[in-house]
Design goal:
The chain is mostly helical and 110 residues long. The chain is built from four helices and no strands. The chain binds zinc ion. The site of zinc ion has 4 residues, from loops.
């Protein structure tokens, strides 16, 4: 057992969960700001957010190629990386299994 494991609380969230939660909170704040500051529809704002994620990937991938690339050792693989990003988006955006969209009542408008 690594020494840092002894310092953790018994039910402390995993670092991955904390990072996921922090990023989601940041994205939600940006979404709400863009939605309320414009006349864009919720989907239009979400599409802009997806474009931003894609452009961040492109910039980071570019920084890992060429003569003066980042020394961390990561090798971008655009086809596989984009497939992984699409799978992550689909896995979290799709309704939970067993939910019948035709039976859901609209609760309000974003
Ligand atoms: Zn790197």
């Amino acid at each position: 057992m690594p020494p840092e494991a002894d310092m953790r609380e018994p039910h402390a969230p995993e670092p991955w969960d904390t990072i996921r939660s922090d990023i989601r909170d940041t994205v939600m704040v940006a979404f709400c700001k863009a939605l309320h500051g414009t006349q864009l529809s919720p989907l239009a704002v979400i599409e802009l957010m997806a474009e931003a994620v894609g452009s961040v990937y492109r910039e980071v991938a570019d920084a890992h190629q060429g003569d003066r690339s980042c020394p961390c050792g990561w090798q971008p693989s655009p086809l596989a990386d984009i497939a992984a990003m699409q799978a992550a988006l689909a896995a979290t955006a799709a309704p939970a299994p067993g939910i019948d969209l035709l039976r859901i009542e609209v609760q309000g408008r974003a």
